[in-house]
TrEMBL record, chains A, B:
<dbReference type="GO" id="GO:0006433">
    <property type="term" value="P:prolyl-tRNA aminoacylation"/>
</dbReference>
<dbReference type="GO" id="GO:0005829">
    <property type="term" value="C:cytosol"/>
</dbReference>
<comment type="subunit">
    <text>Homodimer.</text>
</comment>
<keyword id="KW-0963">Cytoplasm</keyword>
<protein>
    <recommendedName>
        <fullName>Proline--tRNA ligase</fullName>
        <ecNumber>6.1.1.15</ecNumber>
    </recommendedName>
</protein>
<comment type="function">
    <text>Catalyzes the attachment of proline to tRNA(Pro) in a two-step reaction: proline is first activated by ATP to form Pro-AMP and then transferred to the acceptor end of tRNA(Pro). As ProRS can inadvertently accommodate and process non-cognate amino acids such as alanine and cysteine, to avoid such errors it has two additional distinct editing activities against alanine. One activity is designated as 'pretransfer' editing and involves the tRNA(Pro)-independent hydrolysis of activated Ala-AMP.</text>
</comment>
<dbReference type="GO" id="GO:0005524">
    <property type="term" value="F:ATP binding"/>
</dbReference>
<dbReference type="InterPro" id="IPR023717">
    <property type="entry name" value="Pro-tRNA-Synthase_IIa_type1"/>
</dbReference>
<dbReference type="GO" id="GO:0002161">
    <property type="term" value="F:aminoacyl-tRNA deacylase activity"/>
</dbReference>
<keyword id="KW-0067">ATP-binding</keyword>
<dbReference type="Pfam" id="PF04073">
    <property type="entry name" value="tRNA_edit"/>
</dbReference>
<feature type="domain" description="Aminoacyl-transfer RNA synthetases class-II family profile">
    <location>
        <begin position="35"/>
        <end position="490"/>
    </location>
</feature>
<dbReference type="InterPro" id="IPR036621">
    <property type="entry name" value="Anticodon-bd_dom_sf"/>
</dbReference>
<dbReference type="InterPro" id="IPR006195">
    <property type="entry name" value="aa-tRNA-synth_II"/>
</dbReference>
<keyword id="KW-0547">Nucleotide-binding</keyword>
<dbReference type="InterPro" id="IPR007214">
    <property type="entry name" value="YbaK/aa-tRNA-synth-assoc-dom"/>
</dbReference>
<dbReference type="InterPro" id="IPR002314">
    <property type="entry name" value="aa-tRNA-synt_IIb"/>
</dbReference>
């Protein structure tokens, strides 16, 4: 296909769009690939749509290669199935809800586990029908609280979602592995630098789950890696608890007066000044910080929750969100504290010398008390005394208090040990491109998907769920490849692999541009020809913004039989004889 | 591509689905091509999706062939643009409305004139940029009051919509003609028997408009044709008014006592019995029937409207709906009549001997009075007298009453003259497959789409709007080709052009099926192989239901080197030597 820029529906913009947070968003808009229609909702212009369709083709090919069969579900769905799995409620404000003219509740599908489960239930009845993998490339909807970064987090977006159906866990493992390998092929073909990390299952339920993250400084996800090969989304990191300490070795509790200290740092300074230890100075890591949240369940009921964690660590909001999902925790407000006068801010403790414990099952106020995994039996802490201006030292877990549970949501730090002992963690950021889940029987049970097994008994089917962000991939590739001059597509995704810039007013130049374009087109290479009446400067700048990988400049040199070949990716420029141009282009495309 | 029925995600059903109104719906569900997800909302299973994708490809190719450029808009759209063109209101209950988490009003796009207009306004500024045609293949939403017939009238459906932008009417004519020709190619390639008929522009506004109807007994649309080539959707038929008659020749008005007549037929009988005419008997066509409607505007305001039409014709509800759109007319109820005690049901008249006129601008009750186009000046009628049990004869249009306007909504009958004098009309039914409109400047004006013209002056752009029902086409082709045994696809749309049925338990049969399939696949022919352990009867019945055009049966005859080739379309069966099978299949596919 040959397109002429004079008639192509595209205009480059000189200025960044409002609220362009990341380069991919800025350049996709400035290059005329997409346009914002509403917050988090974009229209695809011809160039952008071509890239999107190429991503779709790659995804489709790799899904078909593992035997997955393509189907297509509606986006507008009835409430009932989502009611049966409780997601109608759990999705909360993230769900776009619609009431039809007859008053029926409907929704715009954020993901389709329910519909796939019911469809398989409708058609299949025997273990002989399995295994089965179905996929669709479809438009999804989530009413994000903070749509951002253009296509990276939108409210209407294209996903490939697939679902596997197996009679047993072995089958599920095989289906999961097949998808995992297909995803590796997909993201490799997209040219993305990606990592596979352990992930939280989140609202999807289920057990084993991994994410494919495109490494990107502007990514929303933080992940960790160790030298020994551990990799996890930071939300999924499960701290390996230290060994329990012998309780007998622990010191006795003692009151420490801590007036005017204000912060944990203040308490630590006071301890070092007035209660210095012989072996090592006090640090924040010796203190047990107790923070209180109000937890709101999907049904709207609320309850307080207190968390004890080492005083030198903050709570990671995303890890907290992921751990409690679908419930939502917010830090106690002044108003919340007013309802619990026993909670003395700055001095809260799971233990009190005078017996007025305010946290945990045996406490006065019966606030559920959970601790960081580092708070194992025998560890000794300085913590509040439930008395103003007093702390307690020598507070020993398992002796002086017993927590109601463990909640692993403290920040993960560069240098923290990997939970599998594979070395210190480094942190990096990424864009979630794919997610694979072993759902297990959760949806099949809720929706009663059973088939007859080898023994003629009804057996609940076990499922996997697998997603690729198709429209997001367009932005992720742009993010990874763009530079300060514009977009820069890999050959396999470029709307046109070749962009011919014809400069000047000499008709011979335009004729030669058309001739070379025709020759390339005959070889199956799509070409964009800048045939406009514009200055060379405008044309060169547009070529860089539009981002086709190979740029051929035909201008004055043509009189001497010369044209210039530019590699948009490396910036390399070479003069070549016009007769060698097509061969040189093919060579560059193949590189 | 080769697929085996043993693993293909499809199950044929023995029984018709509930509420299967038309054969295409019945068979698409029974053959496992689609499944209902909600009223008027369908999921596409693998076989159905393949047909849909083939239709999409044909449409895309023909749109690109006329230089239209593909884009893709969101389905979830902001309210504002639709507010500016008043369609937010005019669409009424047909629009799916959504309120997002921030309280913003949104909608699921029923059609995208607004968004396209705004996008072109965003990018283009000069007549030099024009002409431009853009298209998308996209999911649309209309909350139909009566979704029916499966894919034929759904609430979520796939459409190709395109829009042309031109600087002047000549340009619009050219763009319209290009689309018209592309549509002829599309529907020809789909193998549909179609007619192009004059159409109403309806809610789209604009002037010239034609519909492409697939001729189908179960179609929702009624259209007319004349021997001389006139063709129109029945809603668009504009009756050619007869010549006005000299008023001087008209008889004087006279009171006719019509007690106990009840109906128009009763009045006619009485006239023939008591006031017989010498030249010809009285008929219903001599009477002027006055019917009253309550008209509700999109903003909810209501007003009465009276229509005078020949007593032998009914009002055609669809013609009335189309003529008044976006307002809606409902016949006066008993309650409505109570509010207008002057209106004596059965005796309503636009004229009264005693001066108590109840219809028309000069009437007592000031009800707007419109007439059928046949009621021209000088025509003479028998109509009500606004007095119980009395009619008036000799009532002459233009002398005794003057209507406030013309409303052409009476039923069109087989044998009525074509308005262009091209002979008597015949009526038939069809499925609306495509619609092309000359919108003109309506949307460009509402949304202020102007470009600089040749003289440097801002000029409102003139637009066309063109739609193809893509998912509907799947049903229309099924409707045209299915028989009492199942589906029967044309080669170009079949999910697999060839269906190989391997019967019996002989492994050699299955091996030969696989070998022939591989040979066809190598030639680029997709093949479905029935490799299941099922009886020949089950397999033959399924092959007929599934509807691939060419069926190759491999069974016992293989031992003697024979296979059977069946043409699903004609029912023809031929034994061929196994070595000739591939050549025979190719020959049959090319037929």
């Amino acid at each position: 296909m040959i397109s002429n820029l004079s008639s192509l529906f595209v205009r480059t913009l000189r200025d960044d769009p409002a609220a362009a947070e990341v380069p991919s968003h800025r350049w996709l808009v400035r290059a005329g690939y997409i346009r914002r229609a509403a917050p988090g909702i974009y229209s695809w212009l011809p160039l952008g749509l071509k890239v999107l369709q190429k991503v779709e083709s790659i995804v489709r090919e790799e899904m078909e290669a593992i035997g997955a069969q393509e189907v297509h579900f509606p986006a507008l769905l009835p409430r009932e199935p989502y009611e049966q799995t409780n997601r109608w409620t759990e999705y909360g404000d993230n769900l776009f809800r619609v009431v039809d003219r007859k008053g029926a509740d409907m929704l715009l599908g954020p993901t389709h586990e329910e519909m796939f489960t019911l469809l398989v239930k409708d058609l299949y009845s025997s273990y002989k029908d399995l295994p089965l993998s179905l996929f669709q490339i479809q438009t999804k909807y989530r009413d994000e609280a903070r749509p951002r970064a253009g296509l990276l987090r939108g409210r209407e977006f294209v996903m490939k979602d697939s679902y596997s159906f197996d009679i047993d866990q072995d089958g599920l493992e095989a289906s999961y592995q097949a998808h995992r390998e297909a995803y590796i092929k997909i993201f490799t073909r997209l040219g993305l630098d990606f990592v596979i990390v352990a992930a939280m299952a989140g609202a999807m339920g289920g057990s084993r789950s991994e994410e494919f993250l495109a490494v990107a400084a502007n990514g929303e996800d933080t992940f960790v890696r160790s030298p020994g090969g551990y990799a996890a989304n930071v939300e999924a990191v499960r701290v390996a608890p230290p060994a329990a300490q012998p309780i007998e070795a622990a010191p006795a509790m003692a009151i420490v007066a801590t007036p005017d200290t204000g912060t944990i740092a203040g308490v630590v300074d006071l301890l070092n000044a007035e209660h210095a230890r012989a072996d090592r100075p006090w640090t924040g890591a010796d203190t047990l910080k107790n923070v209180v949240f109000l937890v709101t369940a999907p049904d709207g009921t609320t309850s307080p929750l207190a968390l004890g964690l080492p005083g030198d660590r903050e709570v990671d909001a995303k890890r907290l969100e992921a751990a409690l999902e679908p419930s939502v925790a917010t830090p106690f407000t002044a108003e919340d504290f007013e309802r619990y006068p026993d909670l003395l801010v700055g001095f809260i403790s799971p233990v009190s010398l005078d017996g007025t414990r305010v946290l945990g099952e045996e406490s006065v106020t019966k606030i559920r008390y959970v601790v960081d995994p580092r708070v194992v039996d025998g560890t000794v802490w300085v913590t509040g005394a439930n008395v103003v201006d007093e702390h307690l030292s020598g507070v020993t877990a398992g002796r002086d208090f017993v927590a109601d549970g463990v909640l692993d949501v403290a920040e993960v730090r560069e240098g923290d040990p990997a939970p599998d002992g594979s070395g210190p963690l480094t942190l990096a950021r990424g864009i979630e491109m794919g997610h694979i889940f072993q759902l297990g029987k959760k949806y099949a049970e809720s929706l009663d998907l059973k088939v007859l097994d080898q023994n003629g008994k009804l057996q609940v089917v076990t499922m996997g769920s697998y997603g690729v962000g198709v429209s997001r991939a367009v932005a992720a590739v742009a993010e990874a490849t763009c530079d300060d001059k514009g977009l820069c597509w890999p050959v396999g995704l470029a709307p046109y692999p070749v962009h011919i810039v014809a400069t000047g007013k000499d008709q011979a130049v335009f004729d030669e541009a058309a001739r070379i374009a025709a020759e390339l087109d005959a070889e199956g290479v799509d070409v964009l020809v800048d045939d406009r009446k514009a200055s060379p400067g405008v044309k060169f700048a547009d070529a860089e913004i539009l981002g086709m990988p190979v740029i051929l400049v035909i201008g004055r040199g043509l009189a001497e039989g010369k044209v210039e070949l530019r590699d948009r990716r490396t910036g390399e420029r070479n003069e070549v004889a016009v007769g060698d141009a097509v061969a040189a282009i093919s060579e560059l495309l193949a590189r």
